[in-house]
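#onboarding

Welcome to the new folks! Below is a worked example of what a typical request in this channel looks like: someone posts a single protein sequence, and someone else replies with the predicted structure as tokens. Don't worry about understanding the tokens yet, we'll cover that in week two.

Example request:
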Amino acid sequence: MSDLQIGVIGYGLRGTLSRHAHKPGGGSRVVALYDPEPTSGERFREAYGESAAVHTDLAAFLKSELDAVFVISPDWLHEEHAVAVLEAGLPVYLEKPMAITTEGCDRLLRTAQTTGGKLYLGHNMRHMPFVREMKRLIDSGAIGEPKVAWGRHFVGHGGDFYFQDWHVEQKYGTSLLLQKGAHDLDVLHWLCSAYTTEVTAMGALTLYDQTQDKGDADPWWHGSDEERLTRWPPLSLTGLNPKMDMEDVSMMLMRLSNGVLASYQQCHYTPDYWRNYTVIGTEGRIENFGNGEPGTTIRIWNKRHHGWQEAGDQTYEVRPGEGGHGGADPEIVGEFLRYVREGGATDTSPVAARYSVATGVAGAESLRAGSTPVRVPAADPEVAAYFA
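Example response:
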């Protein structure tokens, strides 16, 4: 079996994901990059060798002898780049969020349908061990029929990861409810087996606009884990983007198509950094404690109690896998490469990715219009059927 020849569009912060596809002699190898930033090309060749092709022209890149392409460019370029790859007849791995508008997502779905292309979305949380175990338990009937779901995201390094660069300008990302929330909304939809139809939201820029020293830091500075811990409290941070017009707190209520009522909260200046999901069904409640690091557990309460039972009635320990995001990164890349070669079903879904963006867009519209309820537009059934 010859190696798949893999191209990469964008070699920024998420660029290292493509390294999981570089297995010369083992089925796939990364051979080419499109990125107009010179330092990206230098880092790419350091990773993949001096023979790796580096292009600053997209058309020339797409004329390379490629079997598939990873699109991991900045969010506002996802739509443009993925459409170009699909129209070139190549399978595409598209990093989340799918696009920064619902219309952009629908254009991508239509392009894949009309070209007969393979569009795969990088919602790697569907491959995180703790999410997969929650999904398995819920689908097995461990809490009965889901009726209520809550998602909370404590974005402890929000000031470092999002408020220093383009992420906090609406023109580049629409909303952090979309950009950061796309993962969480997709997980809530997956756990509850339905998509959101209506939202009501509120949010505001409540803290980071009050920092005094803005605009002096390298916009790509993330620092080491230990360095980040010293950047506290949040109001002491320096070098944030002075053009920020994005909310640092967002809260959203959702009605799903199967009647489940859900809520999602996101804060970008908490001292801790993790996600918590709770699903309540007709016969119990399930909740995760930890996101895959050692000690992560999933607990189920399915007996009646007088008060708080910390351990739950059943506790499941979740062991992290090998590789980034608790083992999710190598797993999702492996699934994409299998999909390129063989086709077939995948655990990620372009239609689901579209609904996570559409829900985030509707939430942003609602919170910026005084919490007015907003309907989430449905995907074209004919187009969606192509991905079934």
